[in-house]
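Hey,

Quick one before I head out. I ran the complex with zinc ion overnight. Inputs first:
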Amino acid sequence: MSLKTVTGFAAKAAGQLLEPFTYEPPEMGEHEIRVAITHCGVCYTDIQGIDDHFEISTFPFVPGHEIVGTVSEVGGAVSGLKTGDRVGIGWQGRSCMSCEWCLQGEEQLCQDIDKCGTWKPYGGFASSVVVDGRFAYPLPAGMPSEAAAVLMCAGISVYTPLRRYAAGGSLKVGIVGVGGLGHLAIQFARAFGCEVTAVSSSPEKEEQARHFGADHFLLSRDQAAMRQARLSFDLLLYTAHGGSDWTALLYSLKTNARLVVVGFPENQVMFDPLELVVHQFSMTGSFIGSRAEMKEMLAFAREHGITPKVELLPMSQANHAIERVKRNQARYRIVLSNEMGGPQPAIDA
Ligand SMILES: [Zn+2]
Ligand SMILES: [Zn+2]
């Protein structure tokens, strides 16, 4: 093994458990940096990546895209970063920088987005990662690394649509799903001055949702309560990945209001289009955020004390962490730490 050999955890094929995986460090381009990873969050999208749900995974697949670490090497064309800087990295690790979306500063919409993931070639469940330095963000001093890690995907995914549609303040916002994304969305929506309702199928999440700042709690399986909520929200942010009664959710929107999907629901979205027409509802998606929004989100999170609730585990327990996320047992985000025990070299390396 060379000194720089990377140790990580990989699924060898779709749907398999992660195994120790040792690999030669990827070649670095002139715009790229190498980052020694201290922390990496576990996002539901990692599990969908392991399962090749999006049909873009390559195997062996090293998941992980809520990364915090220390810059250990910089390419010749990198500016603004140096060895030793603490940075955060999210799902997007590069972009083409030349399509119409990249040119207008919306790199998250890059037309080559399937080639832009931090997962390519290998992600953050590892000792180090290589990304384009323009997609690594210096972290505010004093922000704990495990908290910053979660902001890099869960945080930006909910910050961007709330900033776009709810920053006017005093809107009635419903956050659907109180999980990794939802518990941050409640906090961001409150910080934007909104009246926040947590909408969840789990009654036991009410107390925590209120603790995160929700003014109200709406149990989505309570049909009477859902009927009572008819025409009440200016904005619904859908952060869950399970199925939902989409028609009931749409009914809870005010006329001209909007439902924004940020989770990756695994079921088809079914609803009665009549309500869409009569009340002029809009449904839209929102995908992570641009580089400018990442920087803005980090500053906003620090200013308003937005704090993910994190369970810290050694990276060597990556499979256990994934199992807990699959069983919906993470409260509310698991972050893997190399400082507590990272990947060991594979036995056959
Ligand atoms: Zn993610
Ligand atoms: Zn592009």
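The pocket of zinc ion (ligand 1) is lined by residues 43, 45, 65, 91, 153 (CB under 6 Å).

Talk tomorrow,
K.
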